[in-house]
Amino acid sequence: MKNAKFLSLAAACLLFTTLYSCKSNNTENAVENKTDISNNTLAQVKTLGFSTDNIRKVEGGYLVEGDIFLTEDNLTEVSTDANLNIAETEQYRTTNLVKSLPRVITVSVTNLPQVYSDAVNTMISRYNSLGLRITFQRAATGSKGNIDVVGFNEGPSGGFITLGSAGFPTSSGNPYNQIKMNTNEAAYGSNPNLLYLASVIQHEVGHCIGFRHTDYMNRAFSCGSSGAGNEGKSTVGAVRIPGTPSQPDAASFMLACSNGGNRTFNANDVIAVNYLYK
């Protein structure tokens, strides 16, 4: 998930050079130029229905659409799901979902301040209140959960800052096993707000269990910039969830960019989550 609050900073930087010169040097995952990524890889990403705008090579794979992590294995997976649609503005899921339901998914927090741990507890309460066939609980002390929440440190770049990132379920039906949360002060401030953190973690868990961005077709809807990217047509990887709206949904927890505050499930999100997991 991204936050667009740095647009004014980026505009100021234009007085001196390009947007990308505003990127902080204090990064854990170095950003590589798109030219450093092979044409074959770019083609595979496009085939899966993801944008290659601002694609980044990171440790273990590629970061696309701001907060979605794709592994090398993801790039070669072939969908067997025939119910594929060109994205509009409805809730969308990936072709992979969590299987072996009902199921308890454990969540751990590694080397992060207490407020991140408290935010994970809030996220767990939000999901569990829906009565789904997947439930969440904290992993035993000292053990790594099915999803481990870890930190990285990266400043703003190109008018945006990455708040967190995650991947999609495996082809075997397991949730993606890691959420990365940005500990840079530019992301959440020196005293992170609990509900803000919980909302971002809730969003990233959505990816871990198979949700795409609600504004998949055009992330400018939530990111507020035409540079946010249009995903275009998809052959695999975006399946419309029946019963979700055909108009933009400004309050959805799966919008690509954060509103900078508390955002939990709205009525349409509940329809989408229930359809998949209740």
From TrEMBL:
Q: Which Pfam families match?
A: Peptidase_M57
Signal peptide range: 1-23
Q: Tell me which PROSITE patterns the record gives.
A: PROKAR_LIPOPROTEIN (PS51257)
Q: Which Gene3D superfamilies match?
A: Collagenase (Catalytic Domain) (3.40.390.10)
UniProt xrefs under InterPro entries = MetalloPept_cat_dom_sf, Peptidase_M10/M27/M57
For this protein, what is any one GO molecular function term?
metallopeptidase activity
Per UniProt, the keywords (alphabetical) are: Signal
- Keyword Ribonucleoprotein attached: no
Q: State the name under which the record lists this protein.
A: Protease
Q: What is the lineage of its organism?
A: Bacteria, Pseudomonadati, Bacteroidota, Sphingobacteriia, Sphingobacteriales
